[in-house]
Amino acid sequence: MTEVLQIENVTKAYRRRGRETVTALRDVSMRLERGDLRYVYGPSGSGKSTLLLCAGGLLRPDRGVVTVAGRNPYALTSEARSQLRARHVGFVFQQFHLMPYLNILDNVLAPTLAGVNTVDPRPRAKELIERFGLGSRLDHPPSELSIGERQRVALARALLQQPQLLLADEPTGNLDDDNGRLVMDALREFAQAGGAVMVVTHDRGLRASDSFHLVDGVLTT
Amino acid sequence: MSLWRLIFQEILYRKIGFLLGLLSVVAAMTAWIGAPVLLRAHNRQTDIIMTERARATQEEMHRMEDDYRLIMRDLGYNVMIVSEDQDLSRLRSLGHPEVTMPFEYVERLGTGGIETLNHLLPVLQERVQWPEHDLEIILSGTPGQIPVSHRLRFLTPDGSAYRNPIMESIPKGELVLGHNVAQRLGLNAGDETVLMGDIFRIRAVNRAEGTSDDIAVWCHLDWMQQQLDMPGRINLILALECICEADALGRITADVNRILPEVQVMEFSSLVKARALARNRAADAHRTAMDAEREHRREVAEAYRRFTSIMSPLIVLVAAAWLVFLFLGNVRERTMEIGVLRAIGVGEHTILCVFLFKSLIMGLIGALLGFFAGHALGAWWVEMNLFSREFVDLIHFRTLWIALVAAPALCMLAAWFPAVRAIRRDPARILCEG
Known about the structure:
The complex is a heterodimer. Chain A is α/β, with parallel strands linked by helices. Chain A has helices at residues 48-55, 78-88, 104-109, 122-131, 147-159, 177-192; strands at 3-14, 22-33, 37-41, 63-68, 89-92, 165-169, 196-201, 211-215, 218-220. Chain A has a single domain, classed as P-loop containing nucleotide triphosphate hydrolases (Rossmann fold, 3-Layer(aba) Sandwich). In chain B, a hairpin with a 2-residue loop joins strand 6 (192-195) and strand 7 (198-205).
């Protein structure tokens, strides 16, 4: 099976007390297969992050079906859904969200807390860190890294468990051109190695041939 | 990476928050453990003080006993000699002997060469009515001391009298009154009074003794024998300041009975009583002082108990509230971390454990520190030496086990609500807000 992510007719609305309902996604459908690297463009408030969270099994849609690695995460218990994410989904955030009290190595190893590993994850963690050019800084805390270096650590963390699906929210939003290119190269490599990547961004500079547009919750190609 | 590493790294990173939490656990444990330790230390100190006082009292009593013995030895031993026909129980109930014996007995004792005798005082005593005042008195007649012939050093050169008699003779025409008699009749030394038709001058008034001596009226033996028609008779010989150091009564009795087999010898009950009384009074005084001390310390202990029974739960309660507040703060501070952990697949139970294990560590360290701080505080409060054997005896290691359960339980209870609140937060919402 080559299909990694399938989103079918997903609608998601936010109902806030005393305010009008905001529909973030309207009947959205998309598919990601192994080797895909898809961009979802859209302005702020268009529903990009909502789509990413729904795809990652973190935000239950009001309607429609999401399938990740062949399973509907919203049909699972909370713990099983966490396990599914731990095994098959990697997240990269615009703000990196590294833990300030852990060194680089421990930050990359953080996904092992989910307890899905059967082999020692340390060699792979070190290999990823080496690959992203931070091999000499294993013991450094995130506060001693540059912005670009932090994003590379976040990317290594997302790749540690060898997920099938990588979800990246504005991964180059805070980076300079060199670091942005480095990160995007890594995402491409991951896709070429058989993974599926969805990047949500408002950065038109990252345009690719096979991309989506999300405007007012409506996804178009 | 293990969960414990994450927890320890976080503790090291946010050490002030952890130390504040630890401080409140230590305070709670110190109050909780310190309260009974304080009472135990106080009771132990009380035991030590009372034991010390009892020992001091015992020593004082022994010292007093020795002092009395020495005093009595220096004073000599006072005995009374009465007729062998005298009923001793009647003697005690009447306060004076009834059966008379010849005056010649005292002369025989005086010349008998008895080593133990120093001073002899013959007396005739009779309970009579003072007719002029309608007052019952014990009329006591004595000629003064009869010389003991071999005690030359006490006697005048001609050997007929004592140079410094321990009891002066009463000249004819004079009386010495017992305290009660003088008081009842309003008589003082130097006054004149009439007894059985004769006029007397009051030579002296004896001080109150609390005995039958208080109703005695002392006069010259000859006058009394004449008045009562008992010529040559006496019924009591007082042997004063006898020389004895061991088995006094037995030795004197043997000496006296060798000369006068027809008499009984007994110790002055008043002196024996006085000695025992003095001893008992001293013991009573010590006992009263110790009882007062014990009562005072019991009251202090009760005050401690009342104070700690209010303060200890209050401190524990405040500490628990403070812990809840600190954990809430910690959860708030780590909201994004929780969201990211959830996103990368860390389950709710694991995140719950992050907070509960942290509280467990805090509780265990707090229990250990609080255990020792509680003991130290309790002992210090009652001024017990922390390096003494008594302090070591105070330590109940069973309490340590209880503390090692109670403190983590308190912390985990305080962390529970914030931790549950943390895992119930929607990770999607956290990530969106971040």
